[in-house]
Amino acid sequence: MRKKGGGRKLLSKKDEDIIIMLDALVEPSSRGDPMSPLRWTCKSTRKLAEELTVKGHPVSHAKVGQLLEGLNYSLQSTRKRMEGTSHPDRDDQSRFIYDKVLEFQKQGQPVISIDTKKKEMVGKFFNSGREYQPKGRPDEVETYDFPSLSDGKGIPYGVYDMTKNSGWVSVGTDHDTAQFAVHTILQWWTQMGQVTYPDAKRLLITADGGGSNGARNRLWKLELQGFADKTRIDVVVCHFPPGTSKWNKIEHRMFSHITKNWRGRSLTSHEVIVNLIANTTTDAGLKINAALDAKEYPTGIKVSDKTMETINIEKNDFHGEWNYSIFPTSNR
How many domains does the chain have? Predict the structure, then answer.
């Protein structure tokens, strides 16, 4: 019988430097900032294992995967919004965003990560995962996930404050459009942002390159102009390059925890969705406010060239299609 405390010691206990070394290999720059606002790795676990072994820390690729999980990294699958092949300036753009986030945080200016979570059908539908139920009395759900059997849809659009580890989610019922996206950002600002940052002069938004907040979406820029005019703050936008949505903070700092919180539960109403989101917390102190947005957001709105000329926009010298600022109109 093994005595208490017996058995093989964990690798991370025997070789404590391996965690530090692994974290440094994943770190996007040589600064080694432990509070990095943007961390990613394009290396496989085998490649990381090879580099650790060369540096004097022999380890298997399987163990590297376990260690990464312990550091709160996870494998991210591809998404349909991925736009073509990897861009040659992908890493440079990611470092640009990294530096811009640090700049804003050091100045005490707000930085948010935004995105739309997967649309959910409302009703008694199967949701992967398990939760405790009275023995022999599982929650019964529909056999088929047909939209015709649903009571509508829920579209969670999220805003994650990267500095304060807090967020806002609007649960829409109509369409995921640029108007819905910017109205959600305005809700965050009204309900949370302006209270947290009363002296804010600028707002940094990090976002995917496609969808309702896409880099080529004209209506997105027009709606941001309206936001800037209402709030009287400069809006700075940085889009992630094609195929890198997994680096967006909101994905693994907020959305993943929401998914865990409602796993195994039927999303039987919009109110249930809102409440489950609002009650999502983590040991790290994540706090989320949520509300239903039942407004209609029509699709197909066109923005003319003439209207685009009215937007007070300034494009950055480095990939102005990804990095730009929109100022209140009177500041033009």
Answer: 2
